[in-house]
Structures are given as structure tokens and as C-alpha cells.
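Each record in this resource describes a single protein on a pair of labelled lines. An example record follows, reproduced without changes.
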Amino acid sequence: MNDYIQQAQVIEQRQVVDAWQRIESWLHQHAPATLAKLRPGASEAEIAALQQTLGVQLPEGLKALWRQHSGFLPDPLASFMLGQGALMDFDAVLSVYRQKMLLQRREDELNRQRGGGDKFTMWRAAWIPFCSFGVDCLSGLCLDVESGRLWYWSEYAERTVIDQKLMGFTRRGCSGHAGP
């Protein structure tokens, strides 16, 4: 890995940690009950196991986020990110990911049966869900580990680019919690 990429990853990690420290500070002052619902950070071993199970290399920013907090404790009302989303725990990440990849495999089979023409993409292996808009995980946010783009997804295969990078989203989320 070249020096430029390593430096960019270190900067991304630091930016995520700084943003989450500001969010935590705001939560401590204004919403301590919400702060108490955040899970502790994931260990390096837990993150490595998640990467292994997903079969993708997670970006440093997402790993830094999960080192801070690996989701919310069970709470049907837990939400505080932009769009009232909640950080997903690893079990929810894996469950949504597996479900979406199963749907894609079924779609791939339908595409093969149909022959040529347009192919529909339900989900890609590079899309990692990390935030859900509800306890049922029927919609949320995922990070495309290839492009770095942040996407909105739903159970109806809707997708919209939310941000070009995780840091843009984290900064906006932080600005809503950290005051002027």
C-alpha cells in the first residue's frame, strides 16, 4: 500500500473518531439516555471476524466508527443519526447483508432464465449496511466499500446516493449534535 493511501486512511480514521467524540459530547449533555444505549466499541478481532464473514475489506473509516460503537443496544426507538437512523450491531449487519445477497442470487438466476436484456441489481457484495431506519431493518444506509459512496437502501430495492464519502455524512451528523 502506498504512503498516500495510508495517510488518507489515517486521516479518515481520525476524522471519524473526532466527529464521534463531538457527537458523544453532545449526547452526554443533551441526551444521556441515548448515549447509554450505544454499544461499546468492537475489538479488532470482532471487526476482523466481520470482514472475514462478509468477504470484503472494510474501509478504515467504517472500522473506526465501529471501534467507537458497534451499534445500539436493543431499543425499538433507538435513533439519532441523520434521518433518524440507528447504528446497526454486527448481528443486524450480517442478517441484512445475507438477506440482500440471497435476494441478489435469486435475481441473478432470474436474469439467467430471461436471457439477454436488462439485468437488475438488488445488492452488491461491496455494499455494507451499517445504519437502519427502524428496528426491523427494512431500510437504512450502506457503504459501498469500492467507491466509498454512502447509499440509502430499502426493502423495495430503492437506492439513492446520500454522500460521496462516509466522512461527509459523519460531519453532517455531528454538526446537528455538536452545536455551533
In short: The longest strand covers residues 127-132. The radius of gyration is 17 Å.
